[in-house]
Amino acid sequence: MIRPIGEIFEDSGIKLKVVESETCFCDGCYYQSNSCELLFGSNDTKKECGQCAMRKRPDGKNVIFKEVK
Fold it and tell me: What is the model's pTM?
């Protein structure tokens, strides 16, 4: 699954927005401090949030997932 930049979705009751990242690092990503290793080790979770790495996205963009309050 690839979520488009700007999309807002829910994961376990938390609203997240797909935001373009200027770097390939996870700085500022919700999943960086919330089980990122589990995220990318689990096919079920990948289906929920989608891919973040530019090499795995057809738009060639790195993204992070920011919590929307």
Answer: 0.80
What the block records as the tokens of 9 is: 């979705």
- Residue 48 vs residues 1, 14, 23, 40: alpha-carbon distances, Å: 8, 12, 23, 11
Task: Provide the residue ranges of all domains of the chain, joining segments of one domain with +.
Answer: 8-67
Give all strands of the β-sheet with 62-67 in edge-to-edge order: 8-11, 14-21, 62-67
pLDDT in tens, the chain (69 residues): 789 999 999 988 999 999 999 887 888 898 887 666 655 555 555 556 778 888 888 999 999 999 998
Residue whose pair of structure tokens reads 């690839």 in the numeric block:
2
